UniProtKB/TrEMBL annotation:
The protein's name: Major Facilitator Superfamily protein
Subcellular location: Cell membrane
Main location: membrane
Lineage: Bacteria, Bacillati, Actinomycetota, Actinomycetes, Micrococcales
GO CC annotations on file: plasma membrane
Molecular function as annotated in GO: transmembrane transporter activity
UniProt entry keywords in alphabetical sequence: Membrane, Transmembrane, Transmembrane helix, Transport
InterPro entries: MFS (IPR011701), MFS_dom (IPR020846), MFS_trans_sf (IPR036259)
Regions that span the bilayer: 30-48, 68-85, 97-116, 122-142, 154-176, 182-201, 213-234, 246-264, 284-303, 323-344, 356-375, 381-402, 423-442, 454-476
Membrane topology note: Multi-pass membrane protein
Length: 508
């Protein structure tokens, strides 16, 4: 049995093996590359089955509604696992939890790859969805190990992977789905996750900044039940009926559970999420803005593919194949990647609040333009690129706003909650825009597609969501009393001071 000794500086226990790893020099380039790669892999899992959705009922011999669980469960799993993984990372080491999440992704890929029926596929996809927690954990690791001069750009890059992975993954999934056996999707996903696992094991240093306390298991269960209830009701409301007992029961029941969960968390000595910190004005408004950004970004992935793939006979669609439609959305992800260093420089110069405000404003303008430009393929490329431009700035700024307003020992849990807010926005977008596009149809012969007015209404709603995000961002304080707690045990603690909202705090 390995002996453990107490690290008097950091206030927690480290094994001899962990101490040995701490003596290794940190390759900061390798750390950034590793966390960006794992972020891309995790985001890829979210869109892995998207091109295959129309064929799933026939492949699995199930109904259309049942087949959608293979997609829905990934979303639910990501929403529940992310804040829990963040708290576990703060308590027991972020590197350790990232490794666990990647093991779950590999296991999920194996289970799904061997499946020929719906139930094992759902299990595998749930395990894959849990992997999305590596992105907020990765952002928190960057704060712990990078020099402050490199932190802003690295945070922007890793944050952008949430959108980049999905945008790049779509055409890859489309090619595999179209030309190879669909099980090969999970061979690719499992292989990528295994590579990420090895990279993390080799290059990410042991987490030395950990919180005191114990894991709040009851709080984790309560949060999971509440989130699943609300997200399930919102995502399935279109098929169940918005006034049905099932929809109302899950949404209202989930809301009641979350209220009870909040009451419990405020009275728990070691809560899963410190709601007093989450209620700080900067954190609260950033999370609310994140809901609108998640809505606006996901709206482009819901509406634009349908517009591109709808038959031209109705006078609305653009008649493109699944692969071409995926390639048209790809510039959105690439521009997010390209804008990450620009967003980092803007954040460093003007603060993360300015970067977030600019990003959401660009998204709003993009959707306003989309109302009038939707008749050519290049129109959709321009719109997707504009949305990606804005989302790139927004995603890069939100972690900096969060980390500038919470204690260093709670960065993973707080970033995890922020990720849940984006997921909530995406779920709402899927439900709302699904109803809009399915309720306004045009039929020519045997072909039925959403009408032009349906697409325009979807763009109007998305623009309104972005405008609401702008309003939330305007009210984020320009200055706040920031935590200046050191991120590594051998760093000097700096006194708290007044600084621009969202500016990066010192990291060793």
């Amino acid at each position: 049995m390995t002996d453990t000794t107490h690290d008097d500086t950091s206030g927690h226990w480290l094994s001899d093996a962990e101490r040995a790893r701490l003596r290794r020099p940190v390759n900061q380039r390798a750390v950034v590359f590793t966390l960006a790669f794992t972020g891309l892999v995790a985001a890829f899992m979210m869109t892995l089955l998207t091109p295959l959705v129309p064929e799933l009922p026939a492949l699995l011999n199930v109904s259309v509604e049942d087949s959608l669980w293979a997609v829905t469960v990934t979303l639910l799993s990501a929403a529940v696992a992310t804040p829990i993984a963040g708290r576990l990372g703060d308590l027991y080491g972020k590197r350790r939890i990232v490794l666990v999440l990647l093991v779950l992704v590999v296991a999920g890929s194996v289970i799904a790859g061997l499946s020929s029926s719906l139930l094992p596929l759902i299990v595998g996809r749930a395990l894959q969805g849990a992997g999305i927690g590596v992105i907020p954990l990765g952002v928190s690791i960057l704060r712990d190990v990078l020099h402050r001069d490199r932190l802003g750009g690295a945070v922007a890059l890793v944050s952008a992977t949430l959108g980049v992975g999905g945008a790049i993954g779509l055409p890859i999934s489309a090619v595999i789905s179209q030309y190879l056996d669909w099980h090969f999707l999970f061979v690719v996903s499992g292989g990528l996750a295994a590579i990420g696992l090895l990279l993390v094991w080799r290059f990410i240093p042991v987490s030395t900044l950990r919180s005191e306390g114990t894991f709040d298991g009851l709080g984790a269960v309560g949060l999971g039940i509440g989130l699943v209830g609300i997200l399930l009701g919102v995502s399935k409301g279109g098929s169940w009926g918005w006034g049905s007992p099932a929809t109302l029961g899950t949404i209202v029941g989930g809301a009641v559970v979350l209220l009870l969960w909040g009451w419990f968390e405020l009275r728990t000595k070691s809560p899963l999420i410190d709601l007093r910190v989450a209620a700080r004005r900067t954190v609260l408004l950033t999370n609310l803005a994140s809901v609108t950004v998640g809505f606006a970004f996901f709206a482009s992935t819901v509406v634009l593919p349908q517009l591109l793939e709808a038959p031209t006979g109705t006078g609305v669609g653009l008649g493109q194949t699944m692969l071409i439609a995926s390639l048209c959305l790809m510039p959105s992800g690439l521009i997010m990647w390209a804008m990450s260093p620009v967003a980092a420089r803007l954040t460093r110069a003007r603060g993360a609040r300015t970067s977030l405000l600019l990003g959401i404003a660009i998204i709003a303008v993009g959707y306003v333009v989309a109302i009038f430009l939707m008749s050519e393929v290049w129109h959709t490329i321009v719109i997707a690129t504009a949305i990606g431009f804005g989302v790139g700035f927004a995603y890069a700024s939100m972690p900096n706003l969060i980390m500038g307003a919470v204690p260093a020992t709670e960065t993973a849990a707080s970033n995890g909650l922020n990720s849940v807010m984006r997921t909530l926005g995406s779920t709402i977008a899927s439900a709302v825009l699904g109803v809009v596009l399915s309720s306004n149809l045009v039929t020519v012969g045997e072909v039925t597609t959403p009408s032009a007015s349906a697409f325009q209404l979807a763009f109007v709603i998305s623009a309104i969501a972005a405008v609401v995000g702008v309003l939330f961002t305007v009210f984020i304080p320009r200055h706040h009393k920031a935590y200046r707690q050191a991120s590594l045990p051998d760093a000097d603690d700096a006194a708290a001071d007044i600084q621009p909202a969202g500016s990066v705090t010192k990291a060793a």
